[in-house]
Amino acid sequence: MADANPEDLAALLPARIVDRIQVDTENGCWLWTGPTSKGGYGCVGFEGRTWRVHRLIYARLVHSLDDESKVIDHLCRVKLCCNPGHFELVSLYENSRRAARSRASNTTRPRTRTPGTPRGTPLIPEERMERRRARQRQRYAEDPAFRTRRLEADRRRRADPAYRQREREREKQPAIRARRIEYRRARRRDPGFREAESARQRTPEHRARERELYHLRKQRNQNQSSLF
Fold first, then answer.
1. Are 213 and 158 in contact (CB under 8 A)?
2. In the chain, which residues have pLDDT < 50?
3. Is residue 136 part of a domain?
4. pLDDT for residue 16
5. pLDDT tens digits, residue range 81-97?
6. Distance CA 147, CA 142 (A)
7. Is residue 74 in a domain?
8. Contact (Cβ atoms closer than 8 angstroms) between residue 70 and residue 58
């Protein structure tokens, strides 16, 4: 859809929606000038429901969005853009990973600067990521629902062969290995984490998962020993 044109929407959407789209000639973005959501995305009512504008246009011009496991990634990083040529349909994990990488590369975001520093002061990406990891560790220890979602997401990622291959390559980097060791040490020193981890290990789901992993490791060892 790189050759899509706003005029193509005239036959698919009402004029009240099409008239609110302006084309940025510099980067090719179709900028939405109507109402926006709290997250900064354009929103509009259509056929009895509220749509994100970029999802509505993608569904009309490109393909239906029946697969709930896929989301639209803005390649141009402009939330108000609704040009389908700037979209890519990716998994939720991949979209979150790209968003985190984009935030880490932007070192002058005012809302992520260190408290007490002047607005616009460049930040060290590692310092900002460490603050983010500290907030996540605190939420992991205090919020059971968040902890359950994180564990379920980790299970899905580890079941992906491509993710496991990427992790093996990253683990070979000395900086990554040292950072993970320090992170595990800091997490074990946290009383809140120890208490939450102790409670989690007593749950039936965790015990069932441990038994499953034990039998899988046992079967793998038997298969390896049978080769010799």
1. no
2. 2, 107-114
3. yes
4. 87
5. 888 888 888 888 888 88
6. 8
7. yes
8. no
